[in-house]
Structure formats: structure tokens, C-alpha cells
Fold these 3 entries.
Entry 1:
Amino acid sequence: MRRGALSLLLVAAALSAGCDQRPAAPPPVELFLDRHWAEPLPPQGPPPAGFSALEASLSPRACGQCHEQQYEAWRSSLHSRSVGPGLLWQLRLMDQAQANRCFRCHAPLAEQKALLAIEHEWQAAPLLPPPGYVEADLGHQGLVCAACHVRDHRRFGPPARPDVQSGTAHGGFTASAAFQDSSFCAHCHQFPPDGPRVEGKLFEDTWNQWAASPMAPNRTCQSCHMPERQHSWRGIHDPDTTRSALDLGLEVVAPGEGRYEARARVRNVGAGHHFPTYMVPKVELEFLRRDPDGSTRTLGRQVIGWTVDTQLTREIEDTRIPAGESREFAVPFTAPRAGGWKVELVVRVKPGEHYERMYREHLARDAQLPAQAVSHLRQALADVLSAEYDLTRIVAAPPAAAPVAASIAN
Ligand code: HEC
Ligand code: HEC
Ligand code: HEC
Ligand code: HEC
Ligand code: HEC
């Protein structure tokens, strides 16, 4: 559909080109992004004559010499870790063409793909060493500054802030409103309509979820994930960001003699897409009964998320909460009518739950894997487990006991 709209635009542009001598209007966001995120990205080519080695370098460290704030924030972000052990062990099982499909989002520069091909000794790896403006570790630096900002060695960015002095470094830059548009992120956070699906749902559908949400008219991806243009992209791995998504309520109701139900109501007030947006993270709701003597027992668990089997063929459940909507999670239980107990709800976030299951299955058969894959795989599992955290706990008391004639046996 996007292609269709685009070719119409191109036809319109071609038709008007001959007869209209006024300067062309700036290309609309869609046209800019189609070129900016060409697939695959072409190599930068030789740097312009007047460039110093620092200006020509594609390394985030070089950009950080002058753009310190962006560099420090980026370094703390997951974008800087997109070539981590979770990707690296899988590369050992792939050929170059398969790996390039992953690099489109995880290491998109042509120069990064070339370095990774040399490292993995893939057949079509370049024979010559990389040019001087490509540092040896660029392949492992993940989603680098240049992937979003540099084409043909030219810088592209959002319109300058009014208070910023224009400089002469790297020949200035070209401003485009596309950097402030949610579609900028869609290249990697939205699969195309013919992408893989389970139960008819695209594995990655964040932009569509956002576009259909009540937030879309007022909030871009950037406004939530890059406030004040910060380059930290906090998401579900960050407790404060996740907390800002949720409004939580807990109540205990008593539908019958000695029978109770703990009901958690969870509203997605702060994420501009489903909570959570795709199948990898899970948010676990654990319901506990706390007795006055300090003992606890688990009453039950419920999961918020889209659970799919590790073969990616079968949906197990989908309890994600669309933006602005709420969902109830209930656990029935029996308990003595009196006794001063309370129900506690523990909210636990597992940002990489799907991968945890998948990594464990592969580790159980590690004899079949190349040795280089196994050490990355172990590290990937350790990383996924250490990303888990308890988000919050809330407590509710049962309704005041109504006077009942018969006592309840337990
Ligand atoms: C030698 C210092 C220096 C280096 C190295 C450098 N920059 Fe810049 N950059 C500047 C200056 C100064 C400006 C402001 C230029 C202007 O406003 O015309 C700028 C502007 C920009 C802008 C535009 C900001 C806006 O308001 O939209 C972007 C994007 C950018 N640089 C990205 C990069 C990236 C990516 C790298 C590394 C590949 C890099 N720069 C390396 C000094 C540098
Ligand atoms: C995932 C893509 C992406 C990556 C990676 C990225 N940026 Fe940006 N950058 C953006 C977007 C989008 C904006 C505009 C945000 C907005 O206007 O809300 C931006 C804005 C900027 C600006 C203008 C900031 C301002 O306050 O006016 C500079 C400078 C910049 N980036 C430099 C860098 C540098 C240096 C790095 C690496 C350390 C980097 N960027 C990494 C997407 C990216
Ligand atoms: C070139 C591909 C690419 C682009 C463009 C891109 N991202 Fe990402 N993004 C990724 C990848 C890959 C990851 C996962 C990194 C990892 O954990 O290995 C990621 C991770 C994230 C996360 C972290 C989520 C978490 O689990 O906590 C957020 C938030 C995010 N991106 C937001 C954005 C936003 C907003 C934009 C647009 C300004 C954007 N991204 C543009 C590829 C991209
Ligand atoms: C269309 C873009 C895209 C493509 C293609 C893609 N990924 Fe990702 N990948 C992402 C994004 C975005 C995230 C982070 C999502 C989030 O945290 O919500 C991610 C996260 C991951 C993670 C978890 C984070 C980490 O670094 O451990 C792994 C592992 C991963 N991808 C592996 C792969 C592999 C292997 C391929 C190729 C078969 C691949 N991806 C292809 C966009 C992509
Ligand atoms: C109104 C604010 C808001 C907007 C708009 C928004 N997000 Fe988020 N996003 C959040 C919050 C809060 C979280 C953490 C809770 C969660 O994971 O849903 C999050 C989480 C994420 C994650 C982590 C992975 C996951 O499974 O949830 C990714 C990736 C992400 N957002 C990308 C995007 C992209 C891309 C867009 C634009 C198409 C976008 N977000 C728009 C607030 C927002």
C-alpha cells in the first residue's frame, strides 16, 4: 500500500517536473524515509575532500567527541547493544544472506555487514580490509549514530533548535522533519504486511498499534522514548518507564461462603501501543495471601503478554492491553472468613521471557551447536534472566465480613 501511494507521488512529481519551474517542494516524510532507509543501505563511499579523520569516522566514539550528551545516552541504551550475545550465537548457525536479514535492524550499515562477514568467514565477505574511516569494532557497536544520521558521509537530523549556533563541522547537516515522525522508527519496529505472523498477527506490529491508538494524534514515538531529544530509548527494561505505562487496582470480592476472588484491574495509560507491544516480554501478576503471622501462600498467577511457542507457530494466549484500555485478571481462592489476612499482588517484569524459553531449549541440546555459539548462548540466557525485576506490590483487604449464621468449615 505504501509502495502504491509512493509510485503515485512519483508519477505526480514527474508529470509536474516539465511544466513547473518553481523550486521543488521539500520531499514529504515518506519519500525521505524511503531513500533514507533504502534496503540494503549503500556503503558511504570515500569521504569528501575537506573532512578530517574525526569527521569522516563512522564510529560513535568519534561523534561523541563533539556530541557528548547523545553519545553518553546512546551508550546506556539498548540500541548500542543490538549486536549482543542474543544475536551473536544465532549468527553462528546462519549463512550471510540469513544474517543480513537480521542486520537490516541490528547492524544496518554496509560497513558493519562487511566487518561481520569477514569475522564469520562468510563466502561473499570482502577481500580488502575496510577503509580508514571504518573502525575495526564498528560491527559490534550495534545501532550506531551513523545508521540513523549519516548517508554518503552527509549528516541528516531534525530541524536545529532555535538556540543552537550553526557550525561548520562535517559540512553542516540536512534537516528533515522525518526525524520527528513516528514513521522514522517503523523501519525496524514494524514488520511489513507480508512479514511473519501467528494467528494472523504480525510478530512486530508496534507502529500499527500506535497508529490505531488514541495517543497517535498527540504523541510520537520520539515524544515518549526520546523526551527532549534524549538518546536513551527507555522501554520495558526500565522500571520507571514501565511504571509510567500502568494504572493498577486490586480488590478482593467474596462471591460466596469462604470463597473469594482477587481481581487486578490493569489499565494501559502510558504506552502508545499494546502493553507490551510484542511477544518477547511478559509481565507476571502473582497473587499472594499474607497472613498476620507473616506466612504467605501463592493463590495464583496471571500473565500480561502475547505468549507464542518457541517454534513461532502457535499462539498460547494473548492478554496484551491496547493503549488506553484496561483488562481484569482474576484469581479465585478459598480462605477463612476471619483471620486478618490480606491479598498482595506482586507485579514482575520479564523483558526477555520468550527468549528465556527459547535459549533454555537450545542449551538443552548444546552438543549440536558450534562451540562459539554455546558461550554466547549461555551469556544471552544470563542477560535475559538478569533483566527481570519486581515492578511494584499492592495490597488489598477482603471485604468486611458480613454476619453469617453458620460458621464455615475450612
Ligand atoms: C568535530 C566535531 C563533530 C563531530 C566529530 C561530529 N559532529 Fe555532528 N555536529 C557538530 C556541530 C558543531 C554541529 C552543529 C552544526 C550545525 O548546526 O550546522 C553538528 C550537527 C550534527 C547534527 C544535526 C543536529 C540537529 O540539530 O539536527 C547531527 C544529526 C550530527 N551532527 C550527527 C553527527 C554524527 C552522527 C557524527 C558521527 C558520525 C557527528 N555528528 C560527528 C560537530 C561534530
Ligand atoms: C535510532 C536512530 C538514532 C540513533 C542510533 C541516533 N540518533 Fe540522533 N537522533 C535521532 C532522532 C529521531 C532525533 C530527533 C529526535 C526528536 O527531534 O525528537 C535525533 C537527534 C539528534 C541530534 C539533535 C539533538 C538536538 O538536541 O537538537 C543530534 C546532534 C544527534 N541526534 C546525534 C546523534 C549521535 C551523536 C548519536 C550516536 C551517539 C545518535 N544521534 C544516535 C535518531 C537517532
Ligand atoms: C535500524 C533499526 C532501528 C531503528 C531505526 C530504531 N530502532 Fe529501536 N531498536 C532496534 C533494535 C534492534 C532494538 C533491540 C536492541 C537490543 O536489545 O538488542 C531496539 C530497541 C528499542 C527500544 C528498547 C525497548 C526495550 O526492550 O526496553 C526502544 C524503546 C526503541 N528501540 C525505540 C525506538 C524509537 C522510538 C525509534 C525511532 C526514533 C527507534 N527505536 C528506531 C532497532 C531500531
Ligand atoms: C525489522 C527489524 C528487525 C529484524 C529484521 C530483526 N530484529 Fe531482532 N529485534 C528487533 C527489535 C526492534 C528488537 C527489540 C524489541 C523490543 O525490545 O521490544 C529486537 C530484539 C532482538 C533480540 C533480543 C535482544 C538481544 O539483543 O538479545 C534478539 C536476540 C534478536 N532481536 C535477534 C534477531 C535475529 C537473530 C534476527 C534475524 C533472524 C533479527 N533479530 C531480525 C528488530 C529486528
Ligand atoms: C505515550 C507514550 C509512548 C508512545 C507514543 C510510544 N511508546 Fe513505546 N513504550 C512506552 C512505554 C511506557 C513503554 C514500556 C511499557 C511497555 O513495554 O509497553 C514502551 C515500550 C516500548 C518498547 C519495548 C518493548 C515492548 O514489548 O513493550 C518498544 C520497542 C517501544 N516502546 C517502541 C515504540 C515505538 C516504535 C513507538 C512509535 C511507533 C512507540 N514505542 C510509541 C511509551 C510509549
Entry 2:
Amino acid sequence: MKTLVVFDFDHTIVDENSDTWVIRCTPDQKLPDWLEKSYQRGRWTEYMGRVLTYIGDQSVRPEHMRAVMESIPFTDGMTELLTFISENKKHIDCIIISDSNTLFIDWALQASGLKSAVDDVFSNPANIDARGYVSLRCFHAHACKECPVNLCKRRVLRDFTENRAKDGLRYERICYIGDGGNDFCPVKELTEGDIAMPRKGFTLEKLLRKGISEGSNELRAKIMPWTSAKEILQELRALIE
Ligand SMILES: [Mg+2]
Ligand SMILES: [Zn+2]
């Protein structure tokens, strides 16, 4: 039976937020105040749509944006971890669920040469339109009250494992690797035998601590905080060997 590894992207696979990293491709390397102030809580994807339109208006070419995204740094040990996963596809399936977008993730993964580690990417769909602007859409609509309007990662994870189960594939365990507030909802989908891997010092770890201290019965997975992805690699190696 296989292990399913689920990754968040920003501050997990890469050590930055791709949506703020992209601002480096603008002529001033910053956004105007009026644009920054237009963000409304829970509506990040709409805001990013405006940011990408602004970037297009500055005559930034998509090739330049791509080069900037290819320079985004990976988190410590992540290259080694993704290499290990790509060499052990017989035992490991691997997906990314991210509130960034498909284009940024694809560019960063292609540049790393480790795209083969990843079976599927679930993120806001993005493409380059006829004007050379990046256009962005919301991933889906959902009924979860806890998550941003465009993405409930728990729903994505559940749909994914249910679809696999229909094909007769059940996972021995799920390892969920993330850092952010929107990774808390999917961690509640995990059960005994699964492992939640929150990045040490980040929001998800704090939410898990709080949930456990309050005696939440939704947190059933084992919790393994990490600083370097090399620690995840060690754990994964021990699990599949
Ligand atoms: Mg993140
Ligand atoms: Zn949710």
C-alpha cells in the first residue's frame, strides 16, 4: 500500500510566498499603496487578480515574470526530499494543494527539475492571455465556513482520496506538510496512522498546539513538526522501508 504525501506550496516547498515574490518583476519592485490597500480579508485571489493586471499594465513580459519565479528559493532540505519522492514513486503518491496558482507552481517546479515527484497540483488556475497578462481564476466554490472563499484544502483532499478509492486505491497513510492557517482544515481530515507535519514556528503549528490543548477530537493524526525537510525525508524513508 502506498503513502500519500500532500504538500502546501508557499513557505513549505518554497521558503517564500510566491504571490509576494512575484512583485520583484515590477519596475519599482513594489506595489502602489492604492493597490495594496484594496485587499479584503478572505479575498486574496481577487486581490492577486488585480496585482497581476497591474503587473501586465507595467509592460512586464511573462518571460520576465517566469524568470523571477524560477529564482524563488526552496526550503532547506526540500530538493533532497522531492528527489527522494521522485525516486520512490512505487511507494509514494504526491500532490500539492495550494492557494498560489498553477502557473507559478509549474514554473518553480520545472526550474527545479523535480516536477516528476509530483502527481497532481490543485491550485487556482492561471494562464497567460493574448495580451501577455497572467489571468487567474478561483479553484472552486465550497461550503466550508473556515476556509477562504476560493479554496478549502480539506475538500480537495477528501475528493482526491475518494476518487482514488473508487479506482481501488487506498492509502496506507497520509503525510500532510504545511505551514499556514488554511492547512488546519485539511489536517482535521486525517485519521489515526496519518501524520501532520507543521513547519516549526509557523501558524499551522500554533493552531495544532491550541487545538490539542483544548482537547479537540478532530485532531487524530500524529504530529511531527519540522524545521528542515531533511527531517521529513528521514521519517518518510523509515516509513516506507
Ligand atoms: Mg503555506
Ligand atoms: Zn475548509
Entry 3:
Amino acid sequence: MNTRKLSNPSAQRPSRKGRRFIEQAAIFFRGFIENPGMVASVIPSSRSTIDAMLARVDWQGCRLFVEYGPGVGTFTTHILDRLPADGKLLAIDTNARFVDYLRETIDDPRLEVVLGSAADVERFVRESGHAGADYIISGLPFSSLPATVAGNIADATYRVMNEGGAFMTYQFKPVARELTQARFEQIETGLALMNVPPCLLTWGWKHKAQTAREVESRPLAAINALNR
Ligand SMILES: C[S@@+](CC[C@H](N)C(=O)[O-])C[C@H]1O[C@@H](n2cnc3c(N)ncnc32)[C@H](O)[C@@H]1O
């Protein structure tokens, strides 16, 4: 019998990282039991989903990153790991248990956690001292939200986004992708097969919206160019 291993208390206890994982899973599961419609998943997103989603962000140019539905912080710490020193992360969640947990466990001056709905993102962004967001990632269960709430959140997201920025979603159902496609100028898609269950990844990029005058004058400009 290997007594050395048994007599070493640290060999029997899970590591700090392991303890945090167990703690997060327990709080997330409790949040799901209390509010199944709002949380809509029993387990947090996988590491491969997190890496795939965040790989397309231009971190150097990011001043304000917004996270909808951070839950127990599955994405939050990874966003902070990549965010520049002068960047800010605004995390918005309707669940007070998750908000308290994030405030108690993540000590980072770049993080602001607010209790409220993503539908009020414009007000939260203004209150945080910014004119717009560079990136917004959403863990919201769009398919469980009432259609008008989902549409209002997507509208507010487009309005508050800075040009060149992206709205990013990871969802089991295509609702978030459809809402993004209907509003954003450029769409990129992916599939996270290793997630449980696998999920659809979508990036909606906001580009300069063309005014009606610009669209109208385009054929004229082409004719003028031919006549030159
Ligand atoms: C599926 S969990 C995602 C948790 C985490 N981001 C992850 O990837 O594991 C959905 C989260 O959205 C939050 N939520 C639901 N409706 C919301 C709303 N309207 N505004 C902000 N957060 C909301 C829930 O409280 C929950 O934390």
C-alpha cells in the first residue's frame, strides 16, 4: 500500500483550479434549478468553445468588452486574460446569485458586474462611461426568451456596438444567429462540436451603415466613371 500518497493531505484534495471548477459547477447547477428558463443549460460552456469564440477578437483595439449572461464566469476570466490593461469588461446578468459570486471571486479592476437585463445594455454602457462597445459576447438563452425581449436585446446590441465591432453568440439553437443575421452587415459562423451539447457559433460584424443617399448614388457614380 502506498502510505506516502495517503499521508500527503494535498494529494487527496483537489487542486485550487479543481476546487474552483467544482464550486462553479455547483453554483451554476443551483442557478439552473432555481431558474431553468433563464439559465437554460445544466453545464457551463467548454474550453474549446471559449477559445474558438474569442480567437477572432482584435484585443489590442478593445476598450470596452460586454458580456451578457456571464453565469459563474466561464468566459469572464478568459476574456480578462486577453483584455488589455486599459480595457474594461462589463458583465450583465439577471441572476443575483451569479452576480454576487462573480463580484466575490474575481478581483480585477477592469471588471464591472451589473445586475440587470441585457435589454438595458445602452444604459449600462453609458453609466460605465463609454459611448459604445467594441465587442459583445452573449451566453443568453435566446430561444427561451420571449420573442419581443430577444428582438429588443438584438436591436439594442446593434445600436450600442461601435463600427468594426462584433456581436458573438454560442447557442444550441439557431435563434441568436437569425437575430444577428437580420441586423449585422457581415456574418461569420462556426460549430463547436466538443461542447456539451454541440453549439452554433456566430459573429455578427457591424460595418458603416450605408445611408439611403449613398445607396442611391452608387449607380450614378458607376455611370460617371464609365463616361470619364
Ligand atoms: C446558459 S447560461 C450561460 C452561462 C455562461 N456564459 C456559460 O457560457 O456557461 C445563461 C445566462 O444568461 C443569464 N440571463 C438570462 N436572461 C438574461 C438577460 N435578459 N440579461 C442578462 N442575463 C440573462 C442567466 O442568468 C445565465 O447566467
